[in-house]
Amino acid sequence: MSLLLGAAGLLLIAGGSLYILVRAFTTSVLWGVGCLLISPVMIVFAMLHWDGAKAGVLAAVAGTVVLFLAGLLA
């Protein structure tokens, strides 16, 4: 059970991060490359472009919660 929850959490985190990365590349190639190479740039991008990155951030946060719960159940 906890293994499935952990996998679901990781998929949500990866999907949310990929969504933000795609939004960054559609905004600008420099934003995309920055988010791809330097992780904190993704956080800055998400804060500055909240309207476009909100869904990805919420998915990543939900995945983190699910992953934490899976850890508690293990």
Model description:
The chain is 93% helix and 0% strand. With 74 residues, it is mostly helical. The chain is elongated. The chain starts with a helix and ends with a helix. The mean pLDDT is 96.
List keywords for this structure.
mainly alpha; 93% helix; elongated
Q: In a nutshell, what does this entry contain?
A:
The chain is mostly helical. It contains 4 helices and no strands.
The N- and C-terminal alpha carbons lie at a distance of 9 Å
Please state the average pLDDT score: 96
Give the helix/strand class.
Answer: mainly alpha
What is the H/E string?
HHHH
- The gyration radius over C-alpha positions equals 13 Å
Q: Spans of 5+ residues with little confidence (pLDDT < 50)?
A: none
How many DSSP helices?
Answer: 4
Q: Count of DSSP E strands? A: 0
Helical content band: over 70%
Which term fits the overall shape? elongated
Strand content: under 5%
Biggest β-sheet, characterized?
Answer: none
Explain the layout of strands and helices.
Elements lengths: L1 H26 L1 H9 L1 H10 L1 H24 L1
